[in-house]
Write a sequence for this structure.
């Protein structure tokens, strides 16, 4: 059992204060940390890894306190942004590193197994930085697992990998989590990776964290504007964007349906309307698989809307008038539903 | 006015590089061709030259060991830690580079003259400084340590902190992370810095003229009465033996060149050596 538990963690780095942060990552599961740049995501990972001193809080792994222990005694596989592969070692040398430094008697055999598990056997002797982005990523994963960690802390683990390789790696990560019973805390800016890997989400903004939520919850009740944009709401308005418009306008209609943090509108919530509905003008448009996406200007508000193909009612140059209706059930108030999932 | 064509640009580069190389090599060529090879051979075998050269290599080896032992940690500290008075420390380290060489010798003389407290202490400890190997070593350290400290500081800065943190999270203690990650990655830069330091030690003369122009046997050096090799060549020149000075200087050029080439080859292999050391830690 290697559950990671963080209670009331606060840390200060320069003028930035993180926390208090509370989170739990059960063994074999993953928690994605989301947040805009400068929110403190990397600081959170480094504080848990032991590289940023915590001012307060308790940190346990499998029920045992690890506070105050040096990083090398925490058994946390920290992989920073950029992977930090050792450039003076080969692929195999990187994977073998944690085994060699602790004098593991079966280092060579274990390295071979890990290389084979991650499809790296053919590249064992290659210089670590000479292999492709996806291969470097697999090397970093194999190396982290060679340390026999109880917790994995990964900062943007798949940032340098193309979409196809990313999907393959995501499957491998899930399998490893279940098989090894490791807890994974990952920072990512990529919604696809987050939804594919993580069991829960923690939104961190300006050093402060809401309680972790489930994927369904973050989609259904995004706790902040950032979260709404991250999970893929195509149009997001804050209360301030909508206030001050006349009665009967689209803005006032949306304002009535807003949460404290605004409202999220999926592009698919719109459909062409023959009469009635809302009217606006096309500001731009582009083809997407299965239909056409247009940005429609309605009295200064820009909405991103999607029309399934056919019939093509929203085709036309910039300035073409369109009418549309919004499915009220698809609109999501922001910041209204945060809390434990 | 347009930018020069690629071909013209290359010609300019080659001309500039060639001119500088000529400035560096022509004087040495003039020196080496001013005496016959047999005269150079005779100078190399002369007892005075052999004693001076052996003594200089011994003293510079001791100085290099001290600089490596004390200077590299200082370089690491300057590269990795922020602390009050850091700028002052960096300025102090750089100072010997900009001082006239004689000033270094004078400063050490005032500090270690037998009449000074520290000089008296050194004499009582059996390690007198004036006109001994220890004076030579001190002058060498004073004038050359800054090169090793500054080069190692610059090199340690190039080692990404994230690599060290990753090594720590993979189970390495701070010293193991240093031996297995920092040192191998910094090996080439450190070697270059130490090489530069050593070269500066051997080429010194101003400080020696004040503190150790004649070296007498004492603890640490049991050879004949001699001088650092730079002083030895200067002495020949001063007594009017220009051919002798040229032959001795030619020996010095050839020995320095051979040692430099050997050190460069060793530095290139430094990373591999450190990687091996890292695996053994």
């Amino acid at each position: 059992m290697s559950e990671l538990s963080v209670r009331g963690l606060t840390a200060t780095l320069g003028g930035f204060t993180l926390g208090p942060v509370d989170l739990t990552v059960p063994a074999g599961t993953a928690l994605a940390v989301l947040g805009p740049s400068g929110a403190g995501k990397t600081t959170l990972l480094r504080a848990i890894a032991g590289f940023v001193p915590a001012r307060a809080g308790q940190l346990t792994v499998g029920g045992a306190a690890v506070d105050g222990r040096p990083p090398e005694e925490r058994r946390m596989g920290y992989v920073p942004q950029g992977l930090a592969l050792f450039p003076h070692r080969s692929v195999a040398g990187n994977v073998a590193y944690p085994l060699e430094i602790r004098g593991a008697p079966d280092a060579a055999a274990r390295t071979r197994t890990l290389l084979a598990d991650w499809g790296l056997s053919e590249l064992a002797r290659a210089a670590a930085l000479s292999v492709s982005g996806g291969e470097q990523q697999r090397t970093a994963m194999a190396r982290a697992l060679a340390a026999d960690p109880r917790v994995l802390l990964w900062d943007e683990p798949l940032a340098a990998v193309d979409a196809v390789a990313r999907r393959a790696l995501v499957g491998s990560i899930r399998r490893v989590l279940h098989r090894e019973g490791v807890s994974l805390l990952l920072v990512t800016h990529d919604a696809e990776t987050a939804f594919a890997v993580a069991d829960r989400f923690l939104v961190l903004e300006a050093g402060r964290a809401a309680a972790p939520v489930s994927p369904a919850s973050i989609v259904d009740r995004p706790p902040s504007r950032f979260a709404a944009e991250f999970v893929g709401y195509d149009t997001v308005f804050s209360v301030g964007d909508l206030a001050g418009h006349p009665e009967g306008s689209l803005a006032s209609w949306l304002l009535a349906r807003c949460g404290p943090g605004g409202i999220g509108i999926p592009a698919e919530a719109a459909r062409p309307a023959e009469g009635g509905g809302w009217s606006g003008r096309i500001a731009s448009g582009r083809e997407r698989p299965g239909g056409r996406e247009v940005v429609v200007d309605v009295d200064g508000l820009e909405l991103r809307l999607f029309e399934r193909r056919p019939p093509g009612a929203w085709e036309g140059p910039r300035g073409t008038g369109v009418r549309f209706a919004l499915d009220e059930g698809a609109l999501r108030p922001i910041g209204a539903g945060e809390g434990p999932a | 006015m347009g930018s020069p064509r690629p071909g013209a640009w290359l010609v300019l580069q080659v001309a500039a590089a060639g001119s500088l190389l000529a400035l560096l090599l022509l004087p040495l060529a003039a020196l080496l061709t001013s005496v016959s090879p047999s005269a150079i051979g005779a100078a190399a075998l002369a007892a005075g030259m052999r004693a001076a050269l052996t003594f200089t290599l011994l003293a510079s080896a001791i100085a290099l060991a001290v600089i490596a032992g004390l200077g590299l940690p200082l370089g690491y500290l300057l590269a990795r830690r922020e602390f009050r008075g850091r700028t002052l420390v960096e300025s102090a380290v750089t100072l010997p580079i900009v001082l006239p060489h004689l000033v270094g010798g004078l400063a050490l003389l005032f500090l270690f003259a037998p009449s000074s407290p520290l000089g008296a202490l050194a004499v009582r400890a059996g390690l007198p400084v004036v006109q001994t190997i220890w004076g030579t070593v001190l002058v060498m350290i004073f004038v050359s340590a800054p090169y090793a400290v500054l080069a190692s500081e610059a090199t340690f800065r190039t080692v990404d902190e994230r690599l060290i943190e990753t090594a720590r999270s993979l189970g390495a203690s701070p010293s193991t992370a240093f031996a297995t990650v920092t040192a191998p990655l910094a090996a080439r830069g450190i070697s270059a810095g130490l090489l530069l330091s050593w070269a500066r030690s051997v080429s010194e003369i101003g400080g020696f003229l004040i503190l150790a122009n004649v070296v007498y046997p004492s603890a640490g050096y049991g050879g004949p009465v001699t001088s650092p090799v730079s002083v030895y060549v200067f002495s020949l020149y001063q007594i009017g033996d220009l051919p002798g000075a040229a032959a001795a200087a030619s020996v010095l050029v050839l020995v320095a060149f051979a040692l430099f080439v050997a050190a460069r080859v060793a530095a290139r292999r430094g990373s591999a050596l450190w990687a091996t050391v890292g695996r053994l830690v």
Chain A touches chain B at residues 46, 49-51, 70-72, 74-82, 84, 86-89, 93, 97-98, 100-102, 143-144, 146-147, 153 (CB under 8 Å). The first strand of chain A starts at residue 4 and ends at 13.
